[in-house]
Prior knowledge:
globular
Amino acid sequence: MDKNGFLKVISPIEGAPAFKAGIKAGDRIIKLNDTDVKGITVNDAIKIMRGEPNTSITVSVLREGEAKPIIITVARAIIRPKY
């Protein structure tokens, strides 16, 4: 979480849906679908982001150097961790 209460992306997982959709390290998540996420926990954000594969979620982010929020549609998929 950043100093303003937004969740900050540290490093999107290469090949994961968020990475493919264009979410970048340093992006600050301000909305998930129509839900303002300022001050929520990472676990609560994960609960909102989870869903059936082949459905989508809209993620609004603030990105350094951009004057307005960027709205990104992320296609949900099963993420398999690499060991």
